[in-house]
Write a structure and sequence with these properties.
This protein is mainly α. It is built from four helices and two strands. The protein has two domains: about 1-30; about 40-110, no CATH class. The radius of gyration is 26 Å and the shape is elongated.
Length: about 120
């Protein structure tokens, strides 16, 4: 009879491990790195720093992110929200200027020096 007790304990340990693995799988199934689905109608945030405080995003915890007039806005913290609301036009201009600068940099040929040498 001692053999049955050992067999039962062995089977239960295996089932416990399997069920624990399944439970963990269900718990983390929705984890995708925290990224939300990107709306193609929203202009992506072009900076690595807070739009208001100019601090590195993530330096004060998870950035505060929201959409304003079709633009993805990111702050280093929710505390910057009041300043953004106080002078929204200033920060929208800063955002739009950064988007334009990023587009210009992305449009620049990868080998601009080679083209300059050919021309001159």
């Amino acid at each position: 009879m001692a053999g049955w007790g050992y067999l039962f304990a062995s089977v239960m340990k295996k089932w416990t491990a399997i069920m624990s693995g399944i439970a963990v799988g269900f718990l983390f199934a929705g984890c995708g790195g925290g990224e939300k689905a990107v709306d193609p109608n929203v202009i992506a945030f072009p900076l690595d720093t807070c739009l208001v405080g100019d601090k590195k995003l993530g330096s004060m915890g998870k950035p505060h992110t929201f959409v304003h007039e079709g633009r993805e806005i990111k702050f280093c913290c929710e505390g910057c929200d009041d300043e953004f609301k106080a002078d929204t036009a200033k920060y929208i201009k800063k955002f739009d200027d950064a988007v334009a600068a990023k587009k210009a940099a992305d449009a620049k040929p990868a080998d601009a020096t080679g083209d300059a040498e050919k021309a001159g």
